[in-house]
Every structure is written in structure tokens, then in C-alpha cells.
Amino acid sequence: MKIYNYLLNIIETKGAVFLVLIDPDKINRSELPAFIYNCEKSGVDAFLIGGSLILENDFELYLETVKTATNLPAIIFPGAVTQVTKLADAILFISVISGRNPEHLIGRHVLSAPLIKKCGLEPISTGYIIVESGQRTTAEYMSGSLPVPRKKSEIAAATALAAEYFGMKFVYLEAGSGAELTVPFEMVKAVSSVCSIPIIVGGGIKDPNTAREMVNNGAKVIVVGNFFENKTNHNLIKLFADAVHIKLPVSV
Ligand code: 1GP
Question: pLDDT of 207-217, one tens digit each?
């Protein structure tokens, strides 16, 4: 529970957590130290490492490079059983609860649970709700599941509540990496009004104001990945962190 408690503590002290998602296929290993240093000094709270489809074949080496570069937690965001390594600090143990595909509801979990135990990794049980976001996303396609329609916030809220009753630790409202449209604010609000477990929101967030608005509507963890895969956006990391950390005064 070490990393989970670390995240809860940040929610308590800073208002919300800012996570940067690093997709090993998108950020070259040689560029990691500089990028991670920049994130760390800009106020990023932890890293998610992974993605729905990863072609980079040395996940272990990638994690080792991340861990050498930072003391911030590296949390696996798994797309496959091959993305389990003891070098990480924790793993989001994700069940795609918006879908009805048994493989992604429980199948992969049965295969990965013994590996996670063997590695001594902290599993953080997460109900993953894929939300319609314009075009079809990799998360949607790879999980073989239908997303929740954008205008059906009540479905997302009922699904999130079911996750809470299952004892899950987080609900993740996911528009998909590089999504055209983010999760609607109304949906974040509807979910946060019925559900007392913290809500992670990610997918298609490209500006600090959107990140802040997600938090204002009840999100407790904001994930940004795609936007920072473009180096010209790296100077904005701090603005995102400041926007997410609503309880902290903005520093210069
Ligand atoms: C994707 O929610 C994450 O799984 C982050 O999305 O890459 O669009 O920021 P982006």
C-alpha cells in the first residue's frame, strides 16, 4: 500500500495528483533522463509507464533507466502480461469494467497475479472505464470493448459505483491516448458525485486549463502522455502541475 498511500497523501496535501504517462514506444530510452529530470523539477508526482500496445522489446531495461533517473514512483500501466517487472514500484491492476470482454475483466489478471506476487510489486486495483472520444482508440480496440457513450454519464457513474462496491482503489475515466476529445467534464462530475474512491482522468488532455477543470469537477488524478511526446511542449509541464495541484500556491 506504499504507493497507493503516497498518492492519497498527495491528493490530501496538493488537491490532486499529476502523473505523466511514458510510452516506451514514443520516448526513446536515451531521451528519458533529461525528460524525467524536467518532469521532476516541474512538480510531476509520479510516472505511469506502459500502454495498450508496446512494441519496445526490453521493458525491463526501460524501467531500469527510469528508476536510475528518478526517485519518484514508477507505476506500470499495463497493456500485457509481459509488462510486469520488479523494477517498478507498483502496477495499476486494471480491469476494463466498461467492457464485457472476460479476458480484460479477469482473464489477463489470473495470468499476471502470480507474476506480480513473485515480483513483490504493489498492485493497485483500478476499474478502467473507456469513454467514447471521437475516433476509435487503441485502448478500445485492444481491449475489444465498447466505450461508454459520451452523453451517458449515468452509465459511467453506475459503473464507477460498482467498482467502489468491488473494493477497487481507483476508477480511471479513459478517453484513450491521443484522443480527439477528452472525457466530458459533466461525466467526471457525475461520477465524482456518486463515487467516493478517487477518480483518475486521462486521454487527450492538451492544456493546463482542461486539467484544472477536470480537477474542479472532481478528478483526483490527472494523466498526460501524448502531449509531452512532443519536445516543444516540455516547457509546459510545470503549468500543468500547477493547474492540477489546486491546493498549492503557484510558485514562479
Ligand atoms: C492514456 O490516459 C492516458 O491512456 C493519457 O492519454 O496520452 O492522450 O495524454 P494521453
Answer: 999 999 999 99
